[in-house]
Amino acid sequence: MDSFSVLIGGKAGDGITEAGGMIGHVLNRLGYRLYQHVDSPSLIRGGHNVVIVRAHRRRVGAHRDHVNVLIALNRQTIEKHAWRLKDEPVVIYDSEAFDATSLPPVAHHLRTGIPIKTILAEEEAPPVLRNTAILGAFCKALSIPWSVLEDVVVTYQHKMPELNLKVARRGYDLASEKLLIHLPGSEPLPILNGLQAVGLGLVAGGLKAYAGYPMTPSSGLLHFLAEQAPRFELKVYQPEGEIAVMLMALGHAYAGERVAVGTSGGGFSLMVEGLGLAGQAELPIVAVLGQRTGPSTGLPTYTAQSDLEFAISAGQGEFPRAVIAPGDVEQAYAWSRLALDLAWRYQLPVILLGDRTLNDDAQSFFTEAVPELPRLAQLDWDGAAMDPEPDLAYKRYALTKDGVSPLAFPGRAGAIVKVNSYTHDEWGITTEDPGMTVQMQDKWLRKGRSMADELDTLPLVNVYGDAGATRTVVTWGSPTGALREIGELAGVRIVQPVVLWPFPVRQLREALAGSDRVAVAEVNATGQLASLMERYGFRVDARLNRYDGRPWGVGELHRRVEEVLA
Amino acid sequence: MKVLDTYAPNTWCPGCGDFSVLNAIKPVFRGLMEEGVGREDIVLVSDIGCSGKIMDYVGVNSFGSLHGRAIPTAVGVKLARPSLNVIVHIGDGGAYAEGLEHLIFAARRNVDITVIVHDNGVYGLTVGQAGPMTPPGFKGRSTPYGSETAPFNPLELLYVAGATWLGRGYTHGIEQLKRLYREAVLHRGFSLVDTLQVCVTFRNMYQSYNGRVYEVEGHDPTDEHQALAKIREWDYLSDGPVALGTLAVRDRPVFCEHFADYGRQPVDVEAGVREVFAGLT
User: Fold this and answer.
1) A250 touches chain B (CB under 8 A)
2) Which of B62, B81, B272 lies at the smallest CB-CB distance from A255?
3) CA B30, CA B59: separation in Å to the nearest integer?
4) Complex ipTM value
5) Residue B3 in this model has a pLDDT that exceeds 80
């Protein structure tokens, strides 16, 4: 086998996500390219958690619904996922957790039951090591050399490495070889989820501070940056709520520190007041908005792409912003760096739109797939007096041709830096003058146009699959990975705008040239990108939507694409 | 001294207590500057309402924030640049109603900022509604038949929350205000001056306050029992005596003080990113 999928399932609290990660590390060592899909309910104990690890010789960007290997730590895994088994599947299970009569009709010789309780008791190992035992069995069943597993355990099991090795060896020895997989032998690649890619991109963009309040599916960014804080001297902290998160971040921005915040729709709703302040006071801020099924609490741990219109229009008044939706980890890395640069170049809010799928699913990171984006320089005040009166030498909101005023920060001698949520003059002093009101609004409009013009020099819209095909699927964000593959399988053109605001009209028109049937695929009920396209005069022939909280697997989406484009 | 003025026309009502606050804080800033603090190292963060207008009237760095949000804004500024002196001007509506959660948390964390509350017990700029410090029975536009809720004691709440410097001033005593503001600004940690600031238009309390305020003497603000007793003496409702002065002082660790050490050594970001990628492989 040179490409296959492994599903591991168990109770929440069994450490399924970590076990999926370990399987990924083993396969990465063998040279496979990976996509790891995580499915877990919003529970700490007792729910059903699943990870599907898809291994391929080539880069893949989504899971498949069918699996070749099923690893069950409980009966529920069998009950819920037996339908996914295909060809000659291998089933590895905890033979002491449930009896074999509940197994799916899988040939006897392809089953491997492991008496995990007995192993743990004999090795005097705690219950968390169940995964290690079954990981050992998994490696043997796939004929993976012991040395590979040994290396992974030693590298990643920092707690009790020796005991882990012993337990893994027991599982390994008790299982028998069921499948012979290829050993692609390629160099291992980094495995990142979307939030790690965003975090690294922000850090590469000069991030100095990150404030976050826990909210799925963006807490991972808070965790990752908190962990990395000492290495990069990041100021990472958790304020009393999302309102404070946003306002504290704007305090950092005012003081000259590159800063980002992260949340999901509910928290973002609370941040919107501060988002408008960023617009009015011209403060650079990057907000990472991880979408999940809404409205309200919705499905906290399940995915959606239903906040596009919200991100584009959140906040009272009219102020420029950018909304960027990466579709994979490589884009997430490059565009997060760009997002920070863009926010500081134009002194405005930039929203990085992700979702549960992109944020938490892990993928092999291909350096060669990282979009080539330039660094944008912020405009700092050169110190030349803007007014003969020394107290007025610096104008925070100097009216300029491109709408961008030079930056100075508190602590800089010779500059009095006044920012204001109120309508203000060039020095930041409050005004209600109608003329100045118009001049400031026009400044923002010019700034927005300047940004749109500069953005248009970057690759805002990607084309995958068969670029010359007349049948086209447009998508944004996380479905891009599945559609990249489907484009090649089905001979369909795939078009993915990465920047959704300002809407990349010119590049989208070019990308769609010659298409005679256009479907728009997105994980929401109303087709928000499709509506946006129509607003700009693009024809949409079919809307392909899903809104059950789950992402598309490649197979299912392929069928849907063929249906709507038939 | 002309320094620290701006060209902005002042729009407070004649006789407003906010003038006293303005005339007390400016000399404090000037004093700091005479002692070597750079003018550029002072940041005034203001809230919304009549109190918020102060940012336009003082020629120092300022951030005019949102209603109730001046405190988290100031926290961000301070954490970004610990060397700055960060002073918040906020009304009782912003501090004790809309932004109360932020106030409690800033006190709890002991962030090194100074909060000057313009506490007039009424919403002035929105023309006279009852606020968190308004006594029951107040007839304003939103409570034409009399308000129902009683004020709470903000200093008691903040003491419990962990504030390390608490004082009370009154806009009829400018020398005392100057002393209090200066002491609060110099305090290392979270400080708050509840300033009884009279709104002459919607709730003129001069007469009532004049007969009741007194300056604390022989009070040890570092003694927990004395501090709490003095704070509790007036419940913001009764007609009893109102203590003015430094009421509570204590010493606790300041939030994220290690941020001040950042930047001493250059950070090789590119190398760090490469290391993290390698660790994820």
Assistant:
1) yes
2) B81
3) 11
4) 0.97
5) no
pLDDT grade, residue A337 (50/70/90)? very high
Task: Give all domains of chain A, ordered by start, each with its CATH number.
Answer: 4-174 (3.40.920.10), 191-369 (3.40.50.970), 390-455 (no CATH), 461-565 (3.40.50.920)
Assigned CATH class of B18-279: alpha beta
Please, what is the average pLDDT of chain A? 96
Lowest average pLDDT, out of A26-35, A172-181, A376-385, A537-546, goes to A172-181
The residue type at A382? D
- B8, B101, B273: residue with CB nearest A241: B101
Select from B65, B83, B280 the Cβ nearest to the Cβ of A411.
B83
* Nearest CA distance, B111 vs chain A (angstrom): 12
Cβ <8 Å between A251 and B78 = yes
For A293-302, which contacts have Cβ atoms below 8 Å and span 24 or more sequence positions?
Answer: A293/A547, A293/A549, A294/A265, A294/A266, A295/A265, A296/A266, A297/A266, A298/A265, A299/A42, A299/A549, A300/A42, A300/A216, A301/A40, A301/A41, A301/A42, A301/A216, A301/A217, A301/A356, A302/A356, A302/A549, A302/A550
Q: Domain map of chain B by residue range?
A: 18-279
A248 touches B: beta carbon within 8 Å: yes
What digits encode the pLDDT tens for the residues A359-369? 999 999 999 99
Angstrom distance (rounded) from CA A204 to CA A275: 24
Residue A104: pLDDT band by 50, 70, 90 thresholds? confident
The predicted pLDDT at position B1 comes to 41
Dmax over CA atoms of chain A, in Å, equals 90
How much is the pTM?
0.97
